[in-house]
Amino acid sequence: MLKVRDGIQIYVSIEPIDARKSIDTLAMLVFDEFKQDPRSGHVFVFFNRSHDKAKILYWDRNGYVLHYKRLEKHRYVLPKSGQVHYQINEMQLAGLLAGLNFEIIGEFYEINYENLF
Description:
Elements: E1 10-17, H1 23-34, E2 43-48, E3 53-59, E4 64-70, E5 85-88, H2 90-97, H3 102-105
Parallel strand pairs: 1-2
Antiparallel strand pairs: 1-5, 2-3, 3-4
């Protein structure tokens, strides 16, 4: 699982990309589509047209990091609303990369077990 530092935002693009795109082209997409600085440290998630491949780009102190995940039998669950960009939290990102619907995951809250016992 990807651990995100405090203050870092996670942005998801629903618009499909060519899965052959690499760091430089994805960085340009961040600048053009998200209107963000790709070196901000924020996390940017992209998917291919068939929604079985995800690429995650972020700047880590002295260079870009590119994560790539390909699902073998399933597809990523992406919303079908008219929105093309989403901002999600770390728990939603973990669910999204596991193949779950991140919109539903956002409705759940962590349970503090220390208060229960």
